[in-house]
Design brief:
By secondary structure, this protein is an alpha/beta fold. The chain has nine helices and ten strands. It has a single domain, classed as 3-Layer(aba) Sandwich (Rossmann fold), CATH 3.40.50.
C-alpha cells in the first residue's frame, strides 16, 4: 500500500511542542515507509479560526523543515465536499436535525451509562422530524456496533461509538462542520491511508470508522496514536494557553534542530539531549516494528 498521511493543525492558536511531536511522528513514520504527507488546515470552526494563526503555522513549519508533498487544503473551502457527503447519508435516511442546546447535553441523562466521561447525545431529536433550519444542528444516526481496529502503537482496540457519543454531530448550531465529520470525509476523499495523531483522539476512532463505512469507504485507514507532551500528570499542552510556543522558543535563540530534538526527547523517542534535523526524523522509526516492515 502507498502510505498517505496528513498533518492537520487547526488555526486557533500558534504551534507548540505538542504539534512538533505530531509532525515528528507524521513525517517520520510516513517517510520511513516511503509515503506522502498532506497538509490540511482544519479551519472548520469559523468562530475560533484566524488567518494570522494559519500564516504563523505555515511559517513555523517551514522554519522547522517539515515540508508537505502537496499544497495545503483548507476545510473552510470544502463545504461542497461535506454537503455532498451529507446528502449521501440523507438519501439513506441517516440524517436528522437537532434543536438540543449545549445545556441539554449537560444533564445527567445525557451521560453514558458505561461511565465514559465525554458527552453522549441520547437521541432526543431522532424521531422529531425537525426541519434543518438555521440555529439547529445536524446529526448522523449511528448503529450500536462494536468497532474493532489495531492501533499501530497501542495494539488491539474495541469501541462502541453509540455508547460513547450517541448519534454523531455533523454540523453544529452555528453552521460549522464538525471535526469528526469533516476529518472523516477528508481522509476518505484525499486518500489518507494512515492517520497519525495524539492519544487524546483515540476515542474518536470508532465513530470515524463507522462514519467512513456509512459513506462507502471499503478499506479503512490505519491508525497510530502517539504519546502527548504533558504539562502536568492530567493536562496536555494547549495552544489556547500559549504553552511552550515555537515562536517563543525561536525568540530565545533555539534552532529548528534544537526544537525537533527536544520534542523527540519529551516523548521518549530519544533518551538523551540532542539536535535533530526535520528531514532526518524517519531514522527514529527505521527499526520501530511494526511501523516500518
Amino acid at each position: 500500500m502507498n502510505v498517505v498521511s496528513r498533518f492537520a493543525p487547526a488555526p486557533t492558536g500558534f504551534l507548540h511542542l505538542g504539534h512538533v511531536v505530531n509532525a515528528i511522528y507524521v513525517w517520520g513514520v510516513t517517510r520511513a515507509r516511503g509515503g506522502r504527507v498532506l497538509l490540511r488546515i482544519e479551519d472548520h470552526d469559523r468562530q475560533r479560526s484566524r488567518r494570522r494563526y494559519e500564516e504563523a503555522i505555515l511559517a513555523d513549519l517551514e522554519w522547522l523543515g517539515f515540508a508537505a508533498d502537496e499544497p495545503a487544503v483548507r476545510q473552510s473551502e470544502r463545504a461542497g465536499v461535506y454537503e455532498y457527503a451529507l446528502n449521501r447519508l440523507r438519501a439513506a435516511g441517516l440524517v436528522y436535525a437537532c434543536d438540543c442546546s449545549r445545556r441539554d447535553l449537560e444533564s445527567p441523562a445525557a451521560r453514558s451509562s458505561s461511565g465514559i466521561s465525554e458527552r453522549r447525545y441520547p437521541g432526543t431529536c431522532a424521531k422529531k422530524g425537525l426541519a434543518e433550519l438555521p440555529g439547529r444542528s445536524v446529526r448522523v444516526r449511528l448503529s450500536p456496533s462494536v468497532e474493532r481496529f489495531t492501533d499501530l502503537r497501542l495494539g488491539a482496540q474495541e469501541q462502541r461509538p453509540s455508547e460513547q457519543c450517541g448519534d454523531l454531530l455533523a454540523k453544529d448550531r452555528e453552521g460549522n462542520w464538525t471535526y469528526q465529520f469533516a476529518a472523516t470525509v477528508d481522509d476518505d476523499v484525499q486518500g489518507v491511508t494512515l492517520v497519525i495523531r495524539g492519544e487524546d483522539l483515540l476515542s474518536s476512532t470508532g465513530r470515524q470508522l463507522q462514519l467512513a463505512r456509512l459513506l462507502g469507504r471499503t478499506v479503512p485507514p490505519g491508525f497510530l496514536h502517539h504519546p502527548l507532551v504533558m504539562k502536568s500528570a492530567t493536562q496536555k499542552l494547549s495552544k489556547s494557553d500559549g504553552d511552550t510556543g515555537i515562536r517563543e522558543l525561536r525568540e530565545r535563540g533555539w534552532t529548528p534542530r534544537d526544537v525537533v530534538g527536544h520534542a523527540a526527547r519529551l516523548v521518549g523517542l530519544v533518551d538523551t539531549r540532542r539536535t535533530i534535523d526535520a528531514v532526518d526524523v524517519s531514522t527514529l522509526f527505521a527499526t520501530f516494528d511494526p511501523l516500518c516492515e
